[in-house]
């Protein structure tokens, strides 16, 4: 069993990575954008309901991925404190980047809930920035760290759109 200081340190590392990455993307930036740009005035209960569902689904997916990174990968979601083992279980069996998909769903949900064009643009920018990061930095780094096991995983599992059959 891990000693208490080691568990406290791990918890602090996870909280820091969550605050600096998904919290900034899903709370701080949307708050600033919405306060600056606002949203559309039209009442749209269906859009709000869809937005709430998307946000909750994305939050659930994000939480599941963070759990897998901690338990299976023995690391955090942060690039400066990465997993020690390749995570290919749970949603990672269907898509290589479910955590980013979860955050993108949260952003799309916020945009719909608040009827905010600025948040739609932020969600699109977030997706494009992460796509570029994964193609040019993350994936080459994973190949270097995990070698053939990552190359096999990459050949088997799509980057963004999940294979719903296996």
What does this structure look like?
This protein has 166 residues and is mainly α. The chain has a single domain, classed as Four Helix Bundle (Hemerythrin (Met), subunit A), CATH 1.20.120. It contains 6 helices and no strands. Helix 2 runs parallel beside helix 4, helix 4 packs antiparallel against helix 5 and helix 5 packs across helix 6. The longest helix has 30 residues. The chain is globular, with a radius of gyration of 17 Å. The N and C termini lie far apart (36 Å). 25% of the residues are buried. The mean pLDDT is 90.
Oligomeric state: single chain
The CATH topology is what?
A: Four Helix Bundle (Hemerythrin (Met), subunit A)
Separation, N- and C-terminal Cα atoms: 36 Å
Number of helices: 6
Order of helices and strands: HHHHHH
Q: What general form does the structure show?
A: globular
Overall residue-averaged pLDDT value:
90
Total number of domains: 1
Helix content: 55-70%
């Amino acid at each position: 069993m891990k000693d208490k200081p080691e568990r406290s340190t791990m918890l602090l590392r996870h909280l820091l990575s969550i605050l600096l990455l998904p919290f900034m993307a899903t709370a701080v930036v949307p708050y600033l954008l919405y306060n600056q740009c606002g949203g559309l005035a039209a009442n749209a209960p269906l859009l709000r309901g869809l937005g709430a569902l998307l946000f909750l689904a994305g939050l659930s997916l994000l939480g599941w991925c963070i759990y897998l990174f901690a338990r299976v990968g023995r690391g955090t979601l942060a690039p400066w404190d990465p997993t020690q083992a390749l995570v290919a279980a749970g949603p990672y069996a269907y898509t290589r980047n479910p955590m980013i998909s979860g955050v993108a769903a949260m952003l799309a949900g916020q945009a719909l809930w608040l009827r905010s064009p600025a948040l739609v643009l932020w969600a699109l920018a977030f997706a494009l920035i992460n796509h570029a990061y994964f193609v040019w930095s993350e994936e080459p780094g994973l190949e270097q760290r995990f070698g053939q096991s990552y190359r096999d995983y990459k050949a088997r599992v799509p980057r963004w759109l999940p294979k719903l059959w296996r």
